[in-house]
Amino acid sequence: MKKIFTFLLLSVLPLSAHEHHDLEKVSAEMAKAANSLLKSLDEETAKRAQFPFKADERQNWNYVPTSRKGVSLENLSGQQIELVRQLLQSALSDPGLKKVDTIIALEAFLGETENRPDFRNSKAYFTTIFGDPSATGTWGWRFEGHHLSLNYTIIDGKPSSLTPSFFAANPAEVRADHKMKGTRALAAEEDLARALASNIAKTNQAIIFSKKPPREILTRSTRQFDQLAPVGVATKAMNAEQQQALLTLIEEFSKRHRKELNEATMKQIKAEFTMLHFGWAGSLEPEQPFYYRIQSTSFLIEVANVQNKGNHIHAVWRDSANDFAIDILADHIHSDH
């Protein structure tokens, strides 16, 4: 099947000289931040933090509490943690970084309320570098822990893949009598989607493809996946107001990244907008379990808020054609050969 849509910054759409310069600037800042972190580490810690670019570990991503490779916040000094933050800032926007901070704070909340600080460890977030960071080279990096997995691949000095990109929150809303009461790390991702689905449901019941939502995002933490069958309603069947609402919802995911990356992503999405489908499963009522997904041929957003009676939300952005820049790397190697 011809690949109609891929979540690429080196996309089928031509980039202007200005856009190329902006993306090269992002790559340079990523490389500078990654190298600053590596240079701050002692020899033994640096070995744990860095893997070859071609290492199998680069695609070994997950979002559950588990053992991980790399260097954790727990093993870093305050100054080194600030260097990790600078690396995150090289990719994320202020709203994106705030979501990361909130998700990590929720891990501390779970450790406190469940009385399991060893299992719910808010410092068990790991940074891993793949290859040698360079403003013009090919390398990658990951920041990951429970409910977070951020993966970036840079090829020849250009950000070429930002996926898989996983954000989640447990609880989706803090309802306990606690200083974090009312906290919702992914509030807009839920509220905008429900409002749009409810609006469409008034005239097109096909938006609800199942009364029972799946128990989890269907693609899980697979390294690569085949695109799911389209569900729900196609954008071409939506009115102008609904189409704009869908764009706003998608941008809530895209704008987690800094302006240069967000603009390149949204440019591609708008070019392929008529290919998209939006589908909902479960109840449209607040505080009830639900699932939705937005997709084109390969681009996919999945959101599941099913666990804990609909108060534990998982959200992932994936590209079946180019997670970890697999397709670009294949073309790159073939061209070099």
From TrEMBL:
It comes from the Bacteria. InterPro entries: DUF3500 (IPR021889). This is DUF3500 domain-containing protein. It comes from Rubritalea spongiae. The lineage of its organism: Bacteria, Pseudomonadati, Verrucomicrobiota, Verrucomicrobiia, Verrucomicrobiales.
